[in-house]
Amino acid sequence: MDKKQMADLARFGGTPAFEESLHVGAPNLGNRADLIDRINGIYDRMRLTNRGPLVCELEEKLAGLIGVKHCIAMCNGTVALEIAIRALGMTGEVILPSFTFIATAHALQWQEVTPVFCDVEPDTYTIDPAKVEALITPKTSGIIGVHLWARACKINALAEIASKHNLKLLYDASHAFSCTFDGQMIGRFGDAEVFSFHATKFFNTFEGGAIVTNNDQLAEKIRFMQNFGFAGRDRVEYLGTNGKMSEVSAAMGLTSLESLDAFIQTNHQHYHSYQAGLSGLPGVRLIPFDEGEQSNRQYIVIEIDENRFGLSRDQVLNLLESEGVLARRYFYPGCHRMEPYRSYFPNAGLLLPETNRIAERVLCLPTGSAVARSDIDMICRLMWTFHTQSQDIQARLTANQMKAVLEAEKSDESCSEILT
């Protein structure tokens, strides 16, 4: 299907490019038969949770893959963050980027720890170590670095700051499973790192997560805290909660793990397809990866320069949605512009110019095993058409907006006449 003119676009009356919508984060699925075999085993054993054999097996395999001493599987990544924060003794204030999923901030605020938002670097989009020290106060107890889109934040610089000021250092590694930094697997850094294995991640356990660490004492504490603080059948030693992963989630994780290399290979192929299809497109920058590091490449992220492309990021988003491409604005508008932080810190944005800028420009496009090469080719052709037809599109959108305003004003006048 060729869509070279504005009239061909679904937004203006054309047929949508995709009958079934393409999603960002559509789940990767491993071998169905292997998963069913594992679920049958769960059924036969009648052991559904409470650190069953599949959870133990998954923890052992993940720890081995990452190269850490301890992996504690969790019911989800958010609870994993909450438990890690509490186990590390983070209190008062903790510094983190605003340009992250809201769960990173909520995990702190939920425990009455104040998130202090730091700006990000313009080239990496991750927390800017140069801005961190200025935010440290006597109340600061830690730093949370966020590895974004399979790219590590500035680990060495953050470690130096944390050591200098005696702060706890935790990493939200939700985007970075099976990625490396300086040739080492992410998961080995800081006091601990947290992974999410939610269905939208390229490696999933239906719903789940994990905390990984090389600290024996911390790992023991986390295991107590994820199981109500029980240290024995009738003995509770810690304040705890229920953060355990179920056996069926572990079954999915083990099955997904067997297809991990295939998932990553698909992501790499899709990245290069986008790279080729978008090459030379004015105003569109495909976020690159360090070819010297291992990467899962589970996110295809573009940054749109409205002046050069001819349309804003949000206009592109709406045009793609009309065609059946459900792109995502990760992480719009930034945690500081969401509640309750918008009310708590109304002026936070003044210290976050890069966060504000990037939040208005980046867009995630579909990838993963649910996406075909032909789908990517169509998305790239659509992007080229949006650009070449941008002047006509802008004119039509402006005319539609003016028409809507006039109709609204006319409606208001009619209502006024009725009321009088």
Outline: globular
Based on the structure given, which CATH architecture of the largest domain is correct? Answer: 3-Layer(aba) Sandwich
Q: Would you tell me the structural class of the helices and strands? A: alpha/beta
Fold-level CATH name of the largest domain: Aspartate Aminotransferase, domain 2
Q: What's the helix count?
A: 15
Biggest β-sheet strands, sense, barrel: 7 strands, mixed
- H and E order: EHHEHEHEHEHEEEEEHHHEEHHEHHEHH
Superfamily at the CATH H level of the largest domain?
Type I PLP-dependent aspartate aminotransferase-like (Major domain)
User: What portion of residues belong to β-strands?
Assistant: 5-15%
Helicity level:
40-55%
End-to-end Cα distance? 54 Å
CATH class of the largest domain: Alpha Beta
pLDDT averaged over residues: 95
* Regions with little confidence, pLDDT below 50 for 5+ residues: none
